[in-house]
TrEMBL record:
One Pfam family, short name: Homeodomain
GO molecular function: DNA-binding transcription factor activity, RNA polymerase II-specific; RNA polymerase II cis-regulatory region sequence-specific DNA binding
PANTHER family in the cross-refs: IP01054P, T-CELL LEUKEMIA HOMEOBOX PROTEIN 2
Coiled coil: none
Disordered as annotated region, ranges: 1-32
Name the record gives this protein: TLX3 protein
Species in which this protein is naturally found: Loxia curvirostra
Length: 152
């Protein structure tokens, strides 16, 4: 029997990750009491960030670890940012809808109001026809008879 050298390479069989140590078990999710959550929320409403001394004091008062309070505040700030971004987006969309509605209203009013008559156009039939032409109005149909366009 030959002695094995300390540098002998053992050959792995199968996938390289199979022989690794099994992953550590995840820590179960911590459940906080309603009182703890209520106090954390009140504090968050007043103050989004805590100094380490403030965090330690709050953790002690709520019978939590410093890490739990720190993680809770980090998660709460993330939730707060997402909510405020969603609210800003909803406000932006509402403002866009209002602006579109006001533009449509103004356009409808402009269609209903007669155009002021230009004195120059009153004496020239071609200019008069052009001034009163409203291509966006649905009831206007342009017909062409012998090369001359007229509005019906």
């Amino acid at each position: 029997t030959a002695a094995l050298s300390p540098f002998t390479v053992t050959r792995r069989i199968g996938h390289p990750y199979q022989n690794r140590t099994p992953p550590k078990r995840k820590k179960p999710r911590t459940s906080f009491s309603r009182v703890q959550i209520c106090e954390l929320e009140k504090r968050f409403h007043r103050q989004k960030y805590l100094a380490s001394a403030e965090r330690a004091t709050l953790a002690k008062a709520l019978k939590m670890t410093d890490a739990q309070v720190k993680t809770w505040f980090q998660n709460r700030r993330t939730k707060w940012r997402r909510q405020t971004a969603e609210e800003r987006e909803a406000e932006r969309q509402q403002a866009n809808r209002l602006m579109l509605h006001l533009q449509q209203e103004a356009f409808q009013k402009s269609l209903a109001q007669p155009l002021p008559q230009d004195p120059l156009c009153m004496h020239n039939s071609s200019l008069y026809a052009l001034q009163n032409l409203q291509p966006w109005a649905e009831d206007n149909k342009v017909t062409s008879v012998s090369g001359v366009a007229s509005v019906v």
